[in-house]
Predict the 3D structure of the following.
Amino acid sequence: MMRFPITDLLNEQNCHDFVLGLLHPDGLGCPSGHPLPDGQCPHRPVRASVADYRCRTCGKVFNLFTGTVWAGTHYSCAKIVLILRGFAQGVPTLQLADELECDYGTLLGYRHEMQAAALQLRDTSPLPDAVTEADEAFQNAGEKGDRHSDPEDPPRRRANKRKGKGTMANDRPPIQGIVGRDSGEIRLTVCGDTRIDTVQPEVEAKTGTGITLYTDESSAYNRVAASGRGCATS
Ligand SMILES: [Zn+2]
């Protein structure tokens, strides 16, 4: 199989600017929040695109990774861009580590840190909508990925061909989601399984009473009506 040195092919400065925009949408500043003045020279260049700056107000030394999940990383910005893309697209950690030539354990650590951060920042308030829609998706968690025995059969396809319902235990945890028809907002939870005792509390946390919930035929939603919500199959 032909291998593409994709990290080397990306423009490091463009990747740096992209990562800077993601990590610091309001511009780079020191850990105490003093903004970095335009045109200030680096305190010392760490490597090609990542420079350390010394704050002129408080003297703290920082770079674009300070105070983020990526603090202290030796990865290039190009590699970080590709890692973030892989995480966002649900690429298994093992496949990503292989493609980007980085350590599997290190990458898994970053993935867990970012998942925890995303979990903490998500909106958990009930949807404001009168009409909502529920569904479950099954996502290959990518944590138990098999080694690439057959390059023609990528791990994700293999995972989706696996028989039986996805659960946390078989590495295909269900993601229970409810979307508001008017607001378009969505509330997602990674669940252990799709049984009624698991799903009903999700419905009650994500919607208010008196709303209508459209569901599929799944028996997991059989208790919705009893909890003061209208329930209809879509
Ligand atoms: Zn400062």
